[in-house]
Protein 1
Amino acid sequence: MDLGLKNKRALVASSSRGLGYATALLLAKEGCRVAINGRDESTIKGAAEKASKETGTQVEGFAGDVSLPNVPEMLVQQTAAAFGGLDILITNASGPIPGSIDSLDEAAWQKGIDLSLMSHVRLIKAAMPHLRKSDAASVLAITSYTVKQPIPNLLISNSVRAATAGLIKSLALVLGRENIRFKSIMPGWTMT
């Protein structure tokens, strides 16, 4: 099936394995040039090489922890430099630690917010100048089905991922007028 992705340029955050990697691989199979990301440099370089070899498409691997304030901007700039721009941004991050209101301290909450909300905000903010130049700009935020149905003991994830879904809905309302599409993807357990 041709999804019209040939020669589009994408960045998929947190994609050295799992759902992020599966998403990047599918994009590459459709002919999209893809930048993938993970915290470990050797792991992400190996994943990029494997995806490129399997698909015959340009796949670049960039290391960095998306929860750190300076990394999202760096990833977007590396992607735009490698591909000459950016058309598709898929924001993704691992989940915060589990716990209850009694067991989670403020540092855990802040780390969860940086990981599961601010990483999306920072990636989108950094990507906007490039997306505004694209004729096919899309932002897909991978959150969790816990946005709709919370899971016990995942208090930070349940709370912060709902905030991310609100962010994406808000951006869709405002930036849809500029032909930039925003969607949340709320997966459940996924076999990858």
Protein 2
Amino acid sequence: MRNWLPALLLLLSGSALAGESVRICHGYSCLAQPEIRYTEGQLGQVRRMLFAAVDAENERKTLSEAIGRLYGWAGEQSDIHNDRGGNFADGHVPGKMDCIDHSTSTTRLLRMLEARHYLRWHRVLEPVARDVATVFFVHYSAVIEEKTESNAARFAVDSWFV
């Protein structure tokens, strides 16, 4: 009978640490996709941040901080900590990321938050490609859409600004 208490504590501590995994792209065009593990403690921090948002605008601002924090934790587990802004400052370091890597990874992180019901004023859409300045350069971005009764406002979530 006394053995059930340690077993219960072990079970509860395991579920509290269980967390969730997300594949984060790097290497340009998602060449590498290591699985990043987020603990329930880390996700709880993100949840508290997002639940403090008072409206859609505040949720977008908080999302940029939350995604930045998730990327920071991912950098502790992978080579993405080597990534530098833009596509040319990285050189040949492992972990470099282009906009395809960022838009794919950010969308995956946003979908994880959405599945956990952490987003109250937005929904996650598929990444989009858009022309930037010239016809030869295309930029990819994660996208969220504000939940409204009639008009939906779409917002690009460019990870390099996080």
Protein 3
Amino acid sequence: GTGWHAIALAQRGCQAAGADLSPAMIERARLNAAQSGVPVRFEAAGFGALSATFGAQGFDALLCLGNSLPHLLSPAELGDALVDFAHCLQLGGVLIVQNRNFDLVLAKRLRWMEPQSHREGDAEWLFLRFCDFDPDGLITFNILSLQRQGSQSWQQTRHSTRLRPLLFDEMMGALSEAGFGEIEAYGSLGGEMFDPATSGNLVVVAKKDREHR
């Protein structure tokens, strides 16, 4: 994204780096870091290419937030990404992943997420997020963005992307297969324990305890 998680870590004294598949987002992140006065290395790289980009076993921790892993549309892609995460980490390094709780989403067919809004001066944005459950088992995730300036009419755009619902049991098994242990699951970044029937998120904390074979 725009780099603020990595920038916040750097402001707290960590040596931080960040990656995004979009070169435009990387340029924005670099600008944000420069304006914040902290050194953060940002590189355009996607899932499966992090260790090749940043080097192997160079990190104590790796964060994958914002429901990013469900963009991987097959078990093989997920496995490759998690192995790549492990290659980035030193032995004992920590991985933190934050996804939606898709066990709950599928069980209750939860189509709509809470709307979000943003305002800068007399400019205003509204973001409506909803999903379509597709016949092939994947989800089409939609963001409808509404923007207006002052009293002008609303302008709208829609962005859609495909997601593969990543369920709790698959996540746990894939992490173990990739070389992670001491896996703990939480219902949010606030730290409450994960309940597949009620938690809004699945937040996983795992340690690299062996090299993948």
